[in-house]
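I'm stuck. Protein, please.
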Amino acid sequence: MLLRNIVLFFFVCFSCIYTHDRCTSSEKPAYASLQNIQKNMEQLPCISDGTALKNPIKKVYLKREGDKYFFCIDFIDDISFTPRMYLLPNGAKVILSFNEAVSAPKTKRTNHKVIKGYFFEKFGKSSLMFVLALKENVTFTEKLYTSNSIKIGFRINKKKLIAIDAGHGGRDPGTKSIGGDYEKNITLVMAIELREILMKSGRYKVILTRDKDSFLSIDERKEKVDGTDLMISLHTDSNNDKKLRGISIYTLPNLDSLTNSLGKYDTNENAENYRKILSRSRKFSNILVSYIPNICKISNRPCRNIELKILKVNLPAVLIELGCVTNRTDNTLLHSKDFRDKTNRAILYALDDFFEKEEKK
């Protein structure tokens, strides 16, 4: 009996030592690999839902390479899948069909500087729907998948800086409308509402030359808009013909038509720069006109060229006459929130179109 107990004691000791060595040896490589994870790779939370079904997800992580991000999903090795991928301006949706019944992994809420959140959801017995929401508007650079991984590459779109100039202000009231209001008030309301719509899109930063009833000289306005990507100056029109109505858009004339072109544009370099900026201004003007409903446009040449001091800035610039306040219909529309929203959305769509075309060059 004593001998049997002694043998049993040594057997238990040997088993513990063997088990300890096995556990220690298996943990060391994992620990070492964790130490060697690159700083630009961040593992994201994803855990099993605890069901008996197979959890197909091995790892979810985010990688960064220069200015590009890669959202990666690694699957367990012995499972195959077929993806259907849908990419959106601020996220992605992927339907994953597997060759067997699977569970839906749980994900913890994440608040990353780039990722707003992501989750997996059951989509039938053997399919998952994966949804990724991003905080920023992005351009997807690639969508790759192998037999056991998915990799979605994207680049954050740099927000364009738009300058909105509310015409007149302070001691310079501008045109008086048929209803007794002044141009300076109409343009200020329009500018503030346009800023809100542009910023809500998430694609633009906006500065206003003025956000209250204050007077600014042309030079002060130019100083405020310097360094922006595009300027929009808002005004209202008037005419002795009370029937005349509609929106018109102004850009500068050709260089040879300027009355005071000598001096600033006297070198070939300055002249070429003027032509390039004017070309971009007119492209935006033409795009914007295409988004404004015909019923709101001045029928006779809605895009016009005139030498205006406010447009002589070193960036694409347009001046929009939002309507004729001497016309009763236009005056009513300009005091309508619905009309102003529609006009501002036309400007938003035109900006999107304009910058998208420029980036594809």
